[in-house]
Amino acid sequence: MMADSYIPRLQTPPKESYFLLGPRGTGKSTWLLHHYPHASRIDFLLGDEERRFRAYPERIREVVAGMKPQETLILDEIQRVPSLLPEIHALIEKKCGIQFILTGSSARRLRRAVSDLLGGRALLRHMGPFLAAELGSQFSLEKALQVGLLPLIWQSENVEERLRTYIQLYLREEVQAEGLVRHLNDFARFLEVASFSYGNLWTTTEISRESGVKRTTVDNYLQILEDLFLAFTIPVFSRRSKRKLIAHSKFYFFDVGVFRALRPQGILDSKSEMEGLALEGLVAQHLHAWCSMQREPHTLSFWRTSHQLEVDFVVYGPQGFWAIEVKRSMDLNPQDIKGLSAFQEEYPEAKCFFVTMSQQRTVYKNFPVIPITEFLWTLSPSAPSRFGENSRST
Q1: C-alpha pair distances (Å), 199 with each of 263, 280, 302, 312, 383
Q2: What is the tens place of the pLDDT at every residue in 295-310?
Q3: In this structure, how many other beta carbons lie within 10 angstroms of the beta carbon of residue 29?
Q4: What residue segments make up the domains of the chain, in order of their start?
Q5: Fold classified for 18-126
Q6: What is the band of 160 on the pLDDT scale with cuts at 50, 70, 90?
């Protein structure tokens, strides 16, 4: 990572105990070091620390007993010692005066304990790739579409090597070392096949056939990707629907750069198709992050009828109701508006617009057309009411 610069994230540090979850390389530790420079820290990526607390989870009581009230204790990669969570839960319930911050890059072993701790007044925060609003004037659309927005990669001097290493790190340390799959080669082949479903419908039967693994195994592999925060799916928006809709969800890796590193390319692959998928995926990961960072719940979905009328993204929640169609081309045509027109007919309450590679705002057939960089800059959790509205020129 380049030595110079800490890039502030759009996260407000809570005063209460909380989980900070997200994939490796998203800058959780860097952010915590910046906001809690004097905090005590236990890193379970260190083998001796992991072994010490695995053997005797109650040792955490001794650590806390030696701390002063109002101090902060950071427990990195807590999923490696899940037996600690009941002890921490008990300490929070006893109001020991210590703020616990528990980071993790996997939710697989934490589900039940996280639920218990959330009930015990711990909060839940997520950290993903950079947002354009966080990078401001440092944001480059061209770079983002090629390498993604993962902080570890974005600030690297050797992007391609870093991306390859990152993929191997996850396969080796997160998937294999945690015993999440029996056959690593099958999982690696599944990842490659899954890359062809990026931005498309997730069909388990087809992926099973292409990757040569059982349908139940494909379902398990998808769950692993979601548990490791490496992918997400979005459902069909079906609220008050009058039309017959498809049933499948759409699939995305959490970052465009990871998708491009996993997707095999050759002379038969269309450059425009790849760039179109990358553009849609970049919008998807921003919207997914925006929804997860709102205090009030918002849903991210898409809309597609059985007659192939489609809208790329639908955001619905207390702040508003938006339908968004992403187009790589700057020249729209009547065919492009069919999905938005049908959606607006069915949901006149929704604000419908295009996001494209254009350089300035225009209007096409009464639909606003917003330049993608401008749109991404508006996706700041600190100003939710400006979603899709005019952004600052940073």
Answers
A1: 12, 7, 11, 9, 27
A2: 888 999 999 999 889 9
A3: 17
A4: 18-126, 131-394
A5: Rossmann fold (3.40.50)
A6: confident
